[in-house]
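Much of what follows relies on a compact textual record of a protein's fold. Here is one such record, which you should read through line by line:
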Amino acid sequence: MLSLPDFMEKSIVICFTTEGQAISFKNDNVLVKDKEGKIVLQHSCYRVFSLWIVGNTTITSGILQRSKKFGFSIYLFSYSFKIVGVWNASAEGNFLLRQKQYNYEALDIAWHLVTNKIKNQISLLTGIRCKTEEEKKTIKEIEGYLNQNFNDLDLKKILGIEGITTKLFFTIWFKDVPWYGRKPRTKIDTTNTILDIGYTYLFNIIEAMLNLYGFDVYRGVYHRNFYQRKSLVCDVVEPFRCIIDKKVKNAYNLGQIKPKDFTNYHGRYLLNIDKNRQYTSWILEEIMKYKKDMFLYIQKYYRAFMREKPITQYPEFIIKE
């Protein structure tokens, strides 16, 4: 298994073919060249955690061979950051882990993940300065859901609690920005568009980490099995969504999100192609601040699951203020 010191040395390499960049390899180094052929990035393959390519490209067998040899995943994105292909480096032979996954039918981990997400929502709302009475009331209302007796809950009730608390949180958290409610993939406003991008990046990183241990990412503990849905990734990403929620709001305050950076196409707000690199930079920079936390979380999750530990010994991620 990958150790923490080794993981901390690894990076995500991004190539924007939308800007004319191209990727190649030389002496076990990955090279990203601009449209004039000038090297803009050179990185040892030993230090690549994941390779992301935005825009049209051609994948050669040489790239795939290096992915397997050095254990990094490859993600292919469209111009609008929609995933069009994934090549994962996974520990596929961990059949004991997968056997435990297929036999697990309880709901304690699902509730643990949901309560972790709720705690982070409360943490963000509590950090608002000079809170209004409405904000204070909302925080108390969300906190009330944490006191539920787990023995009285079934999956339907857990889903309901997660839906209600998230709606309450979003209503307060994004009340001062363009916001029509959370509507995934509709791009109905600039906030939803950026959230989609941020959550996608987060999803990819969590998926790549789960693959390091050989999890069947399609077998969830909270999100139920659904054809071609990576339910376990959807599960584990829940406690970390607050990283994106916090950054998007801060980005508005810092002027990093501007209406002119988007094009309204048939009611959908699309990020202009020439802004891809800029937005990707500050979103990934924020996610990478929690690189160590995410690695340790999944490592502890893996160990607790394999050893069938009580739920109190499962990891918890609390966002930094």
The mean pLDDT is 92. The first helix runs from residue 4 to 8.
